[in-house]
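Q: Joint fold for the lines below.
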Amino acid sequence: MSVAPLNTIADGYRRVASLGNPILDLSPITLLLSIILVIVVAVVGSGWVAPVVVSVVFVGIAYLAGRGTRYLINILKLWLVVGLLLFVLRALLVKGETVLIPLGPIAVTAEGVDEGLRFSTMVMAICGGVTLFFALVPMRHLTLALERLGVSPRASFVVLASFQSITDLGATARVVLDAQKARGIETEGNVFVRAKAFFPILAPVFLTALAATEERAIALDARAFNSRGPKTSLIQLRPTPAWEWIIVAVCALVAATAIYGGVVGWL
Amino acid sequence: MASSGKFASLMRSYGRLTIFLIPIGVAVNFVGGQIALLLKLPIYLDSIGTILVGAICGGLPGALVGLLSNAINSITSPPTFGFAILNIAFGLLAGYFGRLGFFRVWWKALLTSIPFAFIGGFFGALITIWIFGGLAVGGGAIVVGALTAMGMDLSTANFVAQIPMDILDKVPTVLIVYLIIKGIPKRLLVKLPLGWVYLGKPNPRAARPAEASAPIA
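A: Joint structure:
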């Protein structure tokens, strides 16, 4: 590699980390607070309008951040798999006076449909907020921001290493599966035959990972993982500008209004 | 956060290897679930890592594995987080049984599946009723729906559907945990916080309270 690209890579770490979009560059903490406050609006507003509006707002934010299409696909999957099921089951099973469609022993009632719409859209608005947060915030930025608030770097390590281990062990599992198939373990057939294949796949995956922890412990020790002094970090987070806190304040105001409105009764 | 310093020292008391085993436990939970799907098994097998880490490292690391697994799962499927408390309880309980040596003998390990299934089934059903009003998501919801349609009351239907499903899930889970622990080489067992249980040694901390610090990693 020539010197010029190396310099650009190094320069990337000399500046404050930026993902090149004002929404993606929001501080994880202010973004988290804002999303929670917006979810509060969806939860306290009665009926299904508030949660649906909130969900649409989340999709809008995702598009502004340039992650819209992927987010929309994920959230639509959730609506179809979770939301629809929640709605249908409630519509069918909640007992009510006004029968819309009688179906033998059960019936779709107006109360059931109302309750189903309300509950499923509310759960979906919460899901939308959670998935939006993780679609916008890289995990390392989140853990770094939490470290700045005083969370132990060990906690960051455990969280980040968990994500990495899921990928790594998943890859090992596929290798072991192929190896065991080559040695004649049956992965097809009836349930018992297939169940017998489970242990010979999982056990080597775990034991390999366990054996590797020793080396990892030594490697991290050599990098002063156990030192108690202050830690530096390769990534530099942008200092949170005041306007981000203004956004949080506005969201808090909206949430407070929604709670007040819910108590007084105009939502 | 004031608790982080305390937490860090508590974690340190478990020895250095534990902090590396927690991510592996989380990954085993996921990989176990994936293999079960791949082999088209009708059970989840997604708490092996929690119980395994609980059994060899202790209750708190096990509980952390459970909490983290559900937290990571809820990134893509947020309703999962409602059930995090179950996975935490699995970890704590596995630590307790591990300390008592239940995972040393296969039939004792098998016995632990009863409390695990009870927690998973009974309290799982309770959470479904409290948080989701009796109708949560997942394969069980359809069974519950069908039972209710047949005239069973919603709470009973939840218990009837969940407990047998959980026994089917936890019996293979604890057997796999037992077999995996049997497969851990002695030189690694020595370094694990609860390794002494499986080596048939007395508790090193109880024997020498003066050296109550962690086992050497």
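Q: Anything notable?
A: Confidence is low (pLDDT under 50) at residues 209-217 of chain B. The longest helix of chain B spans residues 154-183.
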